[in-house]
Design a protein that fits this description.
Blueprint: E1 2-6, E2 9-12, E3 17-24, E4 32-38, E5 45-51, E6 57-59, E7 67-72, E8 77-82, E9 91-97, E10 102-103, E11 107-112
Parallel strand pairs: 2-11
Antiparallel strand pairs: 1-3, 3-8, 4-5, 4-9, 5-6, 7-8, 9-10, 9-11
Length: 113
């Protein structure tokens, strides 16, 4: 299993970014993918997750209503659309295949005030 995140960057508060999580090495038809983030000096925390068994999505309270997780099975990719970004969203964002426990390398998101 391989997980590769992309799409991070520097954005002003109120702006938007879309993160991508490209996957390979497993049957995407049975995916369960989670986005996590880790800010400096803080524990890694769950942000959102999605699976295809019931197309259920979950969000942390801190991002609900601002972030949207989605998937493209043709590209074996899960996305995290992040709108109305706040400085407190600054972190390294990681994607994880919840079935195998495989993590990606992370992508930095920095939101300036």
């Amino acid at each position: 299993v391989q997980i590769v995140e992309s799409g991070g960057g520097l954005v002003q508060a109120g702006g938007s970014l879309r993160l991508s999580c490209a996957t390979s090495g497993f049957a995407f038809e049975d995916y369960a993918i989670g986005w996590f983030r880790q800010a400096p000096g803080k524990e890694r925390e769950g942000v959102s997750c999605i699976n295809n068994s019931d197309e259920d999505t979950l969000y942390a309270d801190s991002v609900r209503g601002r972030f949207t997780i989605s998937s493209d099975s043709a590209k074996n990719t899960v996305y995290l659309q992040m709108n109305s970004l706040k400085p407190e969203d600054t972190a390294v964002y990681y994607c994880k295949d919840l079935n195998s426990g495989t993590w990606g390398q992370g992508t930095q998101v920095t939101v300036s005030s």
